[in-house]
Amino acid sequence: MSAPDEFETIARLLRPLATAPEAFGLLDDAAAIPSRPGFDLVVTKDAIVEGVHFLPNDPLDLVARKLLRVNLSDLAAKGAVPYAYLLACAWPASVTWPQREAFARGLAEDQAAFNMTLLGGDTVATPGPLVLSATMFGWVSAGAMVRRSGARAGDLVQVSGPIGDGFLGLKAALGEDIDPALADHYRLPNPRLDLDLIGATACADISDGLLADAGHIARASGVAFELDLDLMPLSDAAAAWVAAQAGRDAALLALATGGDDYQLVATAPAVLPGFTVIGRAAEGEGVRAKAAGKTLAPAALGYRHGN
Fold it and tell me: What distance separates the 2 farthest-apart alpha carbons in the chain?
């Protein structure tokens, strides 16, 4: 049986998702985004690759939702409200029509959940693994986007929720003896669009690891971060995992550098609603982490993307 036709995929599966008038029913080569007085349009883009960001046997409805959610997490870190997205799919011949239908159902489910629409994109065939990319658009009040470069010495460094569940979720998804519920966190992260960033001086989402993404803020802001991993919030499952490890410091470092959490790390002069303080910004540069009063020396701050 031949691979599903790209034009059929667009016509039958993706066109029903392009409900906004500015998408022109995906019958044009472009969309026209209307202006919104008093708002800035925030744009972000992330790609996910089979075998790198999701497992080859992950259901494609969940993969579709993860694609949207990792991009929505970037909007959350900017204080933006989701509006729409562009989609690019590089399909291997092994992806069947029912799998593509499942993918479209996942997109539809999260479009409804997060009140956004598809504006267009591209679909191509590839001899390699499945590669998916979304360009996400969101609205924020003019001049109010929270950047990475606003942290100042004395600001409190704080996180929006448990750290390490993504790292452990991947282990659970691969069959390790870890609470299987954590696999859901890896496959279907929850973008923190529910949080109010008013008062935040800087923010980033935690995709590559807490220390790595905190480091992005510190570098952009020209400050140092001093973090106490004993203050890092943990889920019950992560706390149990740490308690079962031979070395507590190494276990905390693993959670702080593992990535895939999609919580937010932010700075502000005061505690932000829904956040937990884990450290402070200071004069200098880099990220310094400690636990039990001892300075830690991680081999790497988080996930390193290839060239």
Answer: 63
Q: Which two tokens stand for residue 253?
A: 């470092």
131 vs 89: CA distance, rounded Å: 6
Residue matched to tokens 């993918």: 103
SS3 134: strand
Alpha-carbon distance of 190 to 170, in angstroms, equals 15
Q: Which two tokens stand for residue 206?
A: 């935690």
pTM of the model: 0.93
Give strand pairing partners of 81: 139
Per the CB < 8 A criterion, the answer to whether 43 and 134 are in contact is no
Distance, CA of 216 to CA of 204 (rounded, Å): 8
**Residues near 126 by beta carbon (within 8 Å), at least 6 away in sequence:** 90, 91, 92
CATH class of the structural domain 6-141: alpha beta
Classified by CATH at the fold level, domain 156-295 comes out as Phosphoribosyl-aminoimidazole Synthetase; Chain A, domain 2 (3.90.650)
pLDDT digits 0-9 by tens, 49-107:
999 999 999 999 999 999 999 999 999 999 999 999 999 999 999 999 999 999 999 99
d(CA 103, CA 108): 9
Domain ranges of the chain: 6-141, 156-295
